[in-house]
Amino acid sequence: MGQELKLNEFKILYRHWKAGIPWLDHLLLGLLVWIEQKLVDNRVKVEVDEAIKTWETLHVADMVSPVYEESPSDTSTSLPEMRLTAPWYIDTVDKE
Question: How many angstroms separate the CA atoms of 34 and 42, rounded?
Answer without folding.
Answer: 12
